[in-house]
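Open question from group meeting: does this chain pack into something compact, or does most of it stay loose? Before anyone orders reagents, we agreed to write out a predicted structure and look at it together. Recording both the input and the output here so the notebook holds the full record.
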Amino acid sequence: MPQPGVHAVLALAARKPFLKRRWFALGMVFGAMIPDADGYAQAFGVLVQKLDAHTAEALYHRTLTHSFFFAAALLVIFWLISVLRRDQRWLTFGLGLSTGVAVLHIFVDIFLWFDGVGLFWPLWSVNLWSWFTMPEWLSKLLQAGNYWAFLWYFSYLASLARQSGKDAEYLPNFRRWMYLQGGLAVILTVLAFVLPSSSFNTPNGVLFLFVAFPNVLWVTWRMRETIEGK
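Structure tokens returned:
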């Protein structure tokens, strides 16, 4: 199912037709992942507002950042940046970003995730999976799958870097981040089998939001020449 790393893999696979438009592919990869940054709002709900995990998820996850309004707002913001900086690349980046959000994240989530998506949140959401109740064991394994998906994305990036000759000086450091994601994948998969959800959610949330996800965003930026390369 589409963890943010899977969305990123789809963006890498779809980037070739857009390589002549500098920064479009880079924006598309970021846009494919960034809607899941609503996990920080979900964590705020749990830690600060003292909501239970299910209420926080219903309130914050797959709502604003998974809406077409969000994709449109990003496009407007980067259009304004391009005007202020007099640099067309920022508009191109915004176009890629909004495309990644709308097509490679929102659209995929509607069909391939067991939950509703706030397509025009807060006015209207769609849920093709309302008939399905996810068992606890599957929920935990899908969350552990986030780290395996990031490892897959990193492996794809490394392969592209070797093929293109881009970012060659960064590859030794990049491998360390790959080992980190692989180690987290193994650890969280084991925890998914041995811990109940009440005990699993906290270490998973901390490692995802403060280690794995920001690491992936940084590496994506650092490997931008590979992503943009032909």
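Observations to bring back to the group:
Strands lie at 117-120, 124-126.
The longest strand covers residues 117-120.
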